Amino acid sequence: MAIKYVNSILIMLFVCLGCFAKAQENQKTSNWTKHTLFTDVSSDGKWIVVNDMQDKNNVILVQTESGVRKELGSIILLKFLKNNDILSFVDDKSNLHLIDLKTLKTIFQVEVLHKRYFTNHDQTIISYLRKDKKEKKGLQLLDLKSNKSYAIHDVENYQWHPAKDELIFLTSNTDSNTKTLKKWESGSENQQSLFITPKNGVKILGWQSDQKSILLLEDTVDGGILYTINTQNKEVKSLACKILFSDEVVRKINGFDTTSDRNGIVFFNVDIVKSKNDNYSIWDTQDALIAPRKAVAEEYVLNKQSIRWDTKTNEFSIITSNKLNAVIIKPNFNYALAYDFLENEPSTEQYTVADLYLKNYEKGEEKLIVPAHYFSYDYLSFSPSGKYIMYFKDKKWWGYDAVNDKHIEITIPSNYSLYKTNDMYYKHPTPYGVEGWSINENEVFVYDEFDIWMYDLKNDTAKRLTASNGDISYRFNKKERKNTSHIDINQKLMLDLSTKDEQNGFAFFEKGKIVPIVLESNTIENAVCINKQTCFFKKFRYNLSPVIERVDLATKKRKIVYQSNPDLAKLDLGKSESIEYKNIKGNKSKGILLYPTNFNPTKQYPVIYYIYENMTYKVNQFASPVIFPKNRTV
Question: Helix, strand or coil for residue 163?
């Protein structure tokens, strides 16, 4: 069959987006899943959780060996507890459920407030708020080890200790019109009072990094008071918003933008409170930003001032200034990055361009480190301790040694590129990315189009860890690394694979060698491995509704543990095919050819051409088919 191609850099071809054969027209489409999400797997690999999204969420629990499944409906906050013996979640009617995974029966159900529940550090105690008999909030605790339950009345909010079975909570005292911060330890019948505050709006913000002190915010008419309370010796320190500034501007401590570092230093934002008028808005042609962008900039940057509070010395400093009104703060660093958000406004740039300064807290110095930096989200990266700052400029990655005030150019052989050379859509080139750091942070891992490089910042040397010939791309698996920025190449690491001909999969990298596990002409997503022994992943293609597969790494045996839309497997869904062609300039380009159902190669079909950027990945994209009514014109 001859097909005439149009001249274009990127093209997608549809061949007859026709209907199903008559034998298929009676198939109901209302129950076909539009999206299938592989959301969770138990730590022993015996259970997976799938969300088959139709008009609403439809979460399904699946036993990976037997295939037994239980529909949970629309739920949130799912957790596997007690060595994977119990499943907990909240349904759309605010009911907390506990399910015994041995029998799949509900062993506990109760209505909770705000559709929320929490667990202690090792997930053996469940806590939740509910209304008591007097219509006040009460805290309920359920110990899964002892099967004992506890009730603490009139609780506003609470926080578990990050490493101990210790609970900090706020209660109200109606008689004295006060609130009391208290501590409760598992197994104890006693509640220890730590701090009493007036009955204003008070909330617990969280634990400081020493895990001894708790942060508390009291809402007052003059902007709020921030407290740190030592839960062991009851020492209290406070900082009021009203003493931070000497002007008459109305401000308020923002409780959502508060954190602390490992040295007991708290960083928080104070917001300028502006009166709002819903009847009109003022658009000033002299403003550096157009009104909609100005409103966003004021909400997230310009109307915020960042404060550093040393809770040991009770001293504070204002990090932002009129000159440097925007900051990037990493709580455990001894510096901030600061810039003037409006420096080059008005501008046609997508992101801000401004001089980047290093603001040293201890020395009080502001030092220009990168002039005219482009603040795209993928143009900066930090080592975990803040020793190095990676920034992308002049089509190169640079490492800034913040300790020795030294800039290091990241160089690799000239036949490799660390940015997208064929990116025609953006003025500023897009880097392939920085992925992580070695344990001692002297090596940084960067990507080119296909490979992973380890660059030694001390010795200015680059090592290519993978060896693609331009046919396959290697990337570290983000799920495996979601809780750390460190990469230890002496350990067995998981890599994601993709090829130019739309194959996908994953492999292990160990002792400098790559061992492929799965690589095939499908979309492979959400790969996760349990103890480096059993892996699960989602697989689909144009005519294959998503499946969840399991692969045993010892035996290499594979098994489908979940198939979405099983009825569609009985139907002819057509097929997809990658094609290559030359455009009007003689350059090679790619497209995809989509065949109709019941395709007959001896017949001629009309062709619909659809051209838009890069769409060749859709050769493996599944979409639920649609049957149009006979009286509908397309």
Answer: coil
